[in-house]
Amino acid sequence: MLQPYPWHQVQWQEMQQRISGGRLPHALLFSGPAGVGKLDFALLLAASLLCDQPDAAALPCGNCRGCQLLAAGSHPDFRLLQPEEEGKEITIGQIRELLVWQALTPQYGRARAVIIEPADRMNANAANALLKTLEEPGREVLLLLITARPAALLPTIRSRCQQLPFAAQSGAETHAWLSGQLADAQQAALALAISGGAPLRARALVAEGGMERRERLFADFAALLEGGQEPVALAAQWQPLSLPETLATLHGWHVDMARLKVTASPARLDNPDLRERLQALSERVDLAELIQRQGRLQEAMRLARGHPNTQLLLEDILLGWSGGSRQARSAATTR
Ligand SMILES: [Zn+2]
After folding, report:
1. Spacing, Cα 51 to ligand 1 middle (Å)
2. How far away, in angstroms, is 48 Cα from ligand 1 center?
């Protein structure tokens, strides 16, 4: 049976009250980091609206015709709009189809639901076409937009949606859930920290060998900073890996290195298991350069959403890091 995640109880109660009070807006924007379960929450809400006999908590029954059609992916009153291929945009063609569908009357019950995910992948034409829908909503249609980057949406789209924020998680109920999923409380705590408090990302990281990849990546990274790795060769070695994952991992280490540079006992580290090693590496670089590298990595993460040349992008980043910071190097040569 579909259930909200334990860390979504408050948001679910709010939705339940809105449904029972007839106060659902026609467009909601779910924002928050990737991997906290926004899409699952939207699917649950859609299922609740399309169910013939939801329970007292507004949860879908799972057995009625509406629930079965939705589970089979063939409910005529439901649309899930995503890029047709990974890394591609949501196109105006997809939004136009949505507009045609929206002009029809619901086939079954009283409600229809549309999920657009990730909403920030709509290109400019698609976003402008969607605006029309938001200005003149179809009958009994709930529009659910999902994004980890609300600032990337048109302000006119944002202002026409009611925003429901989803935060990163570190609470006891999340730890308990993830420990149950991974059957290892210690690994669960570490994976959640590394994933920046995104429980579903943490689960996927463990399931897909991300913890082992991270260890190998760290050994390479440490060797590079210590001058024992050649940047271009390393870029080639990393090239087959997931670029967004590699960049996010490197970024997380730099954030922690900067934290350790500022104080010996930072309140929070995303990589608590690497504390001593990151501390040692941070001594090779000055704070200004660490911050500059973070900025460069953020820019690369933005570029990685398109189709960059992975090898060149990685080389560009790694070439500046080899053997410690520029200042450390120049200090060494003038010594
Ligand atoms: Zn049902």
Report:
1. 4
2. 7
State the DSSP string of 67-92.
HHHHHTT--TTEEEE--SSTT-PBPH
Residue spans of beta strands (DSSP E) within 158-313: 162-165
What CATH code would you report for 209-334?
Answer: 1.20.272
Q: What is the whole-number distance in angstroms between the Cα of residue 79 and the centre of ligand 1?
A: 17
* Dihedral-angle region of residue 58 (phi above 0 means left; psi in -120 to 50 means alpha; beta otherwise): left
pTM for the model stands at 0.87
Q: 61 CA to middle of ligand 1, Å?
A: 4
pLDDT tens, position by position, 69-84: 999 999 999 999 999 9
Ligand 1 centroid – CA 64 distance (Å): 4
* Cα–Cα distance, 164 to 153 (Å, whole number): 15
Tokens encoding 171: 């609470």
Neighbours of ion ligand 1 (CB under 5 A): 51, 60-61, 64, 67
As a whole number, the mean pLDDT across the chain is 92
Q: Other C-beta atoms within 10 Å of 231: how many?
A: 18
Q: Which residue has the tokens 């660490």?
A: 290
For residues 231 and 319, the answer to whether their CB atoms sit within 8 Å is: yes
Region class of 78: left (phi > 0), else alpha (psi between -120 and 50), else beta: beta
Report CA-CA distances (Å) from 184 to 39, 207, 268, 333.
Answer: 26, 12, 22, 48
Domain range 6-165, CATH architecture: 3-Layer(aba) Sandwich (3.40)
